[in-house]
């Protein structure tokens, strides 16, 4: 995400990570977007940017989400203190 700049409060999606200006990261999931909105993270991370319409449209458009599946089974190494 980047702030559009030139006095605008818009936040834009920068898929190629090439746009000029201050950037911020957001997991491509609706859950993370909702949490960022709740915490008012866009305004803090991108110097007052608040118009996240482009970000919402991007995430709701059905773009493939890149989320790691939850690991199942035992951990590869025992936790400290459980060596017995």
Task: Give the arrangement of secondary structure elements.
Layout: E1 2-3, E2 11-12, H1 30-38, H2 41-45, H3 53-60
Antiparallel strand pairs: 1-2
User: How large is the count of helical segments?
Assistant: 3
What overall geometry do the principal axes of the alpha carbons give?
globular
What is the mean pLDDT?
74
Q: What is the terminal-to-terminal distance?
A: 48 Å
Strands in their spatial order, largest beta sheet:
1-2
Structural class: mainly alpha
Question: Stretches where pLDDT falls below 50 for ≥5 residues?
Answer: 64-72
Largest sheet: 2 strands, antiparallel
Radius of gyration: 18 Å
Secondary-structure element order, as H and E? EEHHH
Fraction of residues in β-strands: under 5%
How many extended strands?
A: 2
Helix content: 25-40%
Salient structural properties:
3 helices, mainly alpha, 84 residues, single chain, two-stranded antiparallel sheet
């Amino acid at each position: 995400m980047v702030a559009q700049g030139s006095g605008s409060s818009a936040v834009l999606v920068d898929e190629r990570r090439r746009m000029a200006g201050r950037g911020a990261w957001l997991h491509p999931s609706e859950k993370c977007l909702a949490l960022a909105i709740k915490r008012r993270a866009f305004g803090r991370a991108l110097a007052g940017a608040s118009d996240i319409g482009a970000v919402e449209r991007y995430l709701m458009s059905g773009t493939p989400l890149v989320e790691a599946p939850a690991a199942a089974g035992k951990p590869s190494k025992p936790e400290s203190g459980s060596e017995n």
